Amino acid sequence: MLDDAQLTEMEQQACDLVRGAGAILLRYFDQPLSIDYKSANNRNPVTDADHASDEYLRGELSRRFPEHGIVTEETESESDDPKEITWVVDPLDGTTNFLHGLPMFASMVCALERGAPVAGAIYIPHIGSADGRVIHTRRGGGAFEDDVPLSIETSDPPRRMASVPGYFLRMFTHRRNMRRRLGDLRNTGSAGYEMAMTARGVFDYTVFNGPWVWDLATGNLAVQEAGGLVMLRNARRKEWAPFETFATSPGASPRPSELRRWRGTLVLGRRETVERITTGVSPKTYPIRQLRARVAKAFGKGPPPEAAPAAPPRQ
Fold first, then answer.
1. Which 8-state DSSP code applies to residue 58?
2. Does the residue 102 lie in any domain?
3. Measured CA distances, 190 to 5, 134, 138, 278 (Å)
4. What average pLDDT does the segment 156-163 reach?
């Protein structure tokens, strides 16, 4: 197991990396961009800003941590061999916002030790800083915004503001009177930005349904280290449990392909609020969708049925 000195070094390196990625993104922001699409109907855009940030982060991680694995959203891994330490990378989260000039996006890196997040950083643009801000964290070391410690539980009283998917009300069942207790709902279009706002205490809680590992890894750890709670839905047992790892077999190092297939439903934020939300809502079941997922899994395509998303994640 990595000791605190090693984790501190990795956290510092993560901060440096996302600051570098943020500087690259700011050079592209609000400028003409070359745009491709990763799926039909002009969905899942990827720009030259994504590629430039991705190339920088992959290159620097390979140079600084040559023995570690790398899983990045924009580039397939060179090997599918499991590594005890793997970095998951989202070079630009919130591409649609970015290409339209909306400054709600993020760049993230996170080190996983045998599938569990242990150190990472999130870059976000910020109206009060020309260079943006960095949320960073390590296991057992707390969470920070630049040099300022973050504490969700000791922040202002609950603000009743939350970030949820646009389809939240129709994709989840709500127990009696729960809808009136959900708060003021928002959707920023960037999971990383929402994670940062949750760790800062701006959002009381955030809901994700079907995100990727690179969307969540750093934010999960930051919220936990800031005193918050992250709950993951176990679809087979139909219950919520505290999030611990992205590995399907706890204690085992997942392959890059396993990390790429990971999907889940999570609620994270202020502890008392998350406990209230997870006792009052649950994802709706879609038998036909689950059947398709099982068929896809049987033929080696797509995620396992318990991780099949009910709707596409934020882009």
1. H
2. yes
3. 32, 15, 22, 22
4. 61
Write the pLDDT tens digit of every residue in 89-101. 999 999 999 999 9
Residue 223 and residue 138 share a domain: no
- Residues 64-98 have pLDDT tens digits of 999 999 999 988 888 899 999 999 999 999 999 99
Please state, in angstroms and rounded to a whole number, the distance separating the CA atoms of residues 264 and 256: 17
Q: Which residue has the higher pLDDT, 48 or 176?
A: 48
The set of residues, in sequence order, having a beta carbon less than 8 Å from that of 76 and lying 6+ positions away, is none
Query: Is the sign of the CA dihedral 26, 31, 36, 38 positive or negative?
Result: positive
Which two tokens mark 74? 């924009």
Query: Is 156 a member of any domain?
Result: no
Antiparallel, parallel or unpaired: β 148-149 and 143-145: antiparallel
Distances (CA, A) of 285 to 173, 288, 304: 9, 9, 15
94, 114, 149 - which closes a domain? 149
Alpha carbons 95 and 101: distance in angstroms, whole number = 10
Assess whether 275 and 199 both reside in one domain. Answer: yes
Q: Would you call 196 exposed, middle or buried from its count of C-beta atoms within 10 A (0-12, 13-18, 19+)?
A: buried
All residues at 6 or more sequence positions from 117 whose CB lies less than 8 Å from its CB, including other chains: 110, 111, 139, 217, 218, 220, 221, 246
Q: How many CB atoms lie within 10 A of CB 205?
A: 30
Last residue of a domain, one of 129, 149, 169: 149
Could you tell me the residue range of the domain that residue 179 belongs to?
161-307
In a domain, 90, yes or no: yes
Residue written as token pair 């070079």? 91
